[in-house]
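User: I'm writing a short report section on ligand binding and want a predicted complex to refer to. Could you take this sequence and 4'-deoxy-4'-aminopyridoxal-5'-phosphate and write out the structure as tokens? A short remark afterwards would be nice.
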Amino acid sequence: MSTDAMSNAALFERAQRVIPGGVNSPVRAFKAVGGTPRFVQRAQGPYFWDAEGTRYTDYIGSWGPMILGHGHPEVLAAVQKAALDGFSFGAPTEREVELAEEILKLVPSAEQVRLVSSGTEAGMSAIRLARGFTGRNKIVKFEGCYHGHADALLVKAGSGLATFGHPTSAGVPAEVVQHTLVLEYNNIAQIEEAFASQGSEIACVMIEPIAGNMNFVRASVPFMQRLRELCTQHGAMLVFDEVMSGFRVALGSAQSVYAKAIPGFAPDMSVFGKVIGGGMPLAAFAASREVMSQLAPLGPVYQAGTLSGNPVATACGLTTLKIIQRPGFFEQLGQRTRSLMDGFVKVAGDAGVTLTADSEGGMFGFFFADSLPQNYQTVMAKGTDTFNRFFHLMLDQGVYLAPAMYEAGFVSAAHTEQDIADTVAAAANAFRQL
Ligand code: PMP
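Assistant: Sure. The structure tokens for the complex follow:
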């Protein structure tokens, strides 16, 4: 840190001169909620401190990765040791093998895994592999699910079910998204219709099984079951994007949650990120040996990365994955997260504010609505202004929630019962002022 501490506002002003919008990823700019982004100086456990020295209880945790909280001593030690041994080699290391073994042990649907550096890269590579494996071009995604910013995935629904999507970003040619079909989440009739009309051309259906990019919305069990049946019947791959839900909603990720409800359930391919890197740039995609052997150097689907399997990142991820396997870890995390959401619903009710909430493991969402939304349209239908006011009332009390209504929240193992109780008390205060 420089000796002359700058305010958040002064830093934001300075940042905007040299970085577009002052941020290196758009949601950090507080555009949805307004106000000045907090520039983080340091973090420890469930807290971070901004440039002005103000402490915040952090319910973002770097958008998911920090499941152990910040600066966990064992993770820190592993990272420091790895850094001393070298930052990057561009040659294989034992630790990559160990991390791959650990991921596969926890994800029985997959037999092999390839490590990459970001969720975007993993999702993009998974789609290329699904297309290469099936020899088909079309892909299906759902409105409100985010799978990174690869061109073919920056797309919104076309005017009708039979029509393909429109780019949601400038710079993406219409031709690039002409193979991407965007459907409504949890809508069984739409997915049945799509497979009935073009099932033989669909390479894969990509889905966030428990979506964290339209606040927190679960795919219903009947919807997931039907999706699985249709993919199998038509030879399309079911690709689970578990970048956010992976090792976060349960030790076995969201797929283990659906496998409990649907006997024998498994996706054909899984995409991971966030928690598997523990806060370092690391992501992965995984599938059966048959599918993964289509990748270079074995097969015709090209995929590569200078920093893939980075030795410092793998040390961070591996240690994180080992710690989350300790007895009782997810029970306690799930219980803390539930008590946060139960607390919100209770104190909102006391203040006469309509609120619903849901959570799984260490991931949560709440809505200023009387029932849990099932798709993007209903998430976005109401509550934006109320959320934005609530966000700032919480921020003013030192609680850092996602700065947009369409994002999920995260609790870490470092959040104590007292932290949760303090946050619920702050929420009670905020709800009374809404
Ligand atoms: N998939 C999902 C479900 C995500 O939540 C994200 C990021 N929030 C991504 C993919 C992209 O990951 P990254 O930001 O690491 O590229």
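A remark for your report: The pocket of 4'-deoxy-4'-aminopyridoxal-5'-phosphate is lined by residues 63, 118-120, 123, 146-148, 208, 212-213, 241, 243-244, 273, 283 (CB under 6 Å). The chain has a mean pLDDT of 96.
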